[in-house]
Design brief:
2 domains, 18% strand, Peroxisomal Thiolase, Chain A, domain 1, two-stranded antiparallel ribbon, alpha+beta, 426 residues
Length: 426
């Protein structure tokens, strides 16, 4: 970490809630519009970037290396490499981490890194039975063979496989992400009321931040119909604890406590940050907004993936001799209310800190006033590839707005991982 890595600027799109139909923008549209607006206000040309790195969990089949596609669409030119990273929910943070490592290694000086996903456009797939039937149909050469194939066809073959459900199901433990949140609710005795209170608070904080103009990192979008999308559209003033209590459990319908209301939303969005070495800052006369001090990745059991922030952020705290409340602000991505609450309880649980983290004593209670000051993904949404970049960008904006110095952004990752990034405002 001897070579400083600065964050020069950043932007994101509004996060647009999926409404059970393909949204107005593909992932590459979101990333291109946001990145182009960000690059237009810089003191360097797009073709002066050393590389473009984009995190994306669900690129469309015609944009598999979406990072390169977007780099070309933004006008970075043929000579600027563009590539894609995927670490599930932390793909955007992985892009930042990869950019940081390349700058520290001297392989790059100026990098555009971030994340994007259009989860409303997650595909509907043919079942294996339908694929096998189609294979037989196309292999049929004679009329008799085709008649025989038709006789084998069943209407049930047409039942689609919902791609996003497969993507949000862990292949190792066989549980949906929401079921892993139920595991944590049981482990830490988190009540339904506590989850709904946390979710309501997320909506209230986002609404207050919108009213105060605290999301100035957002670049408005205009769709093909001329509709302007200027703000995150999943937040609701009527998402009170009383109203959220009316919703039924979604993942464990008989015994569960996790509902659609106290979970993050299926969302489309993109976020970018510009990272630079000290040499690039001086060469282009840039004015950094912050710098990355440290980062960490961690692994844990997939069925407890929501505790990833605890396992990733704790080693950073130890390396820098920091307590939870020595930091001025925290962003913990709100995949589920139960998941964030479980992280807070794990740090304050002597047995968990001893057995899972190897600590002599618990880290204690994180001050609620330092956590997700302007709300989080329960109200704003969680476009998987973008969220890790969004929380780093907004954390820096909070620090600068409040006149503070240090903060931690952390995120849980499907598959049983966690990521964390310590930043300082400049």
């Amino acid at each position: 970490m001897s070579r400083p890595v600065y964050i020069v600027d950043g932007a994101r799109t509004p996060f647009l809630k999926s409404r059970n139909t393909p949204g107005p923008f593909a992932a590459s549209d979101l990333a291109t519009a946001c990145g182009s607006a960000l690059l237009m206000r810089q003191r360097f040309a797009p073709d002066q970037l050393d590389e473009v790195i984009l995190g994306c969990a669900s690129p469309s089949p015609d944009e598999v290396n979406i990072g390169r596609v977007v780099a070309l669409r933004m006008g970075c030119g043929h000579a600027v490499p563009g590539w894609t990273v995927m670490r599930n929910c932390a793909s955007g943070m992985q892009a930042l981490d990869s950019a940081m490592v390349n700058i520290q290694a001297g392989r790059a000086d100026l990098v555009l890194a971030g994340g994007a996903d259009a989860l409303s456009r997650a595909p509907l797939l043919f079942s294996d039975a339908m694929v096998r039937w189609l294979s037989g149909w196309y292999a049929a050469k004679t009329l008799g063979q085709r008649v025989a194939a038709l006789r084998r066809f069943r209407l049930g073959h047409l039942a689609p496989v919902i791609g996003i459900v497969k993507g949000l199901t862990d292949p190792i433990c066989g549980q949906l992400m929401g079921q892993t949140a139920e595991n944590l609710a049981y482990r830490f005795e988190i009540t339904r009321e506590q989850m709904d209170d946390f979710a309501a608070r997320s909506h209230q904080r986002v609404l207050a931040a919108q009213a105060a103009g605290h999301f100035d990192e957002i670049v408005p979008l205009i769709d093909r119909d001329g509709t302007v999308h200027a703000l995150d559209d999943g937040v609701r003033a009527d998402s009170t604890a009383a109203n959220l209590a009316k919703l039924r459990p979604f993942f464990d319908k008989k015994y569960g406590r996790v509902t659609a209301g106290n979970s993050s939303q299926i969302t489309d969005g993109a976020a970018w940050l510009i990272l630079a070495s000290e040499a690039a800052v001086e060469q282009h006369g840039l004015e950094p907004i912050g710098k990355i001090v440290d980062s960490q990745w961690a692994g844990l059991a997939p069925e407890h993936m929501g505790l990833g922030p605890v396992h990733a952020a704790t080693p950073i705290l130890q390396r820098h001799a920091l307590g939870l409340n020595d930091l001025d602000a925290w962003e913990i991505n709100e995949a589920f209310a139960a998941q964030v609450i479980a992280c807070l309880r794990a740090w304050d649980d002597a047995a968990y800190c001893r057995d899972a983290l190897g600590l002599d004593a618990p880290l204690g209670a994180l001050d609620d006033a330092r956590l997700n000051i302007d709300g989080g993904a329960i109200a704003q949404g969680h476009p998987v590839g973008a969220s890790g970049a969004r929380i780093v960008l907004h954390l820096l904006n909070v620090l600068r707005r409040e006149g503070k110095t240090r903060g931690m952004a952390s995120i849980c990752i499907g598959g049983g991982q966690g990521g964390a990034m310590l930043v300082e405002a400049v």
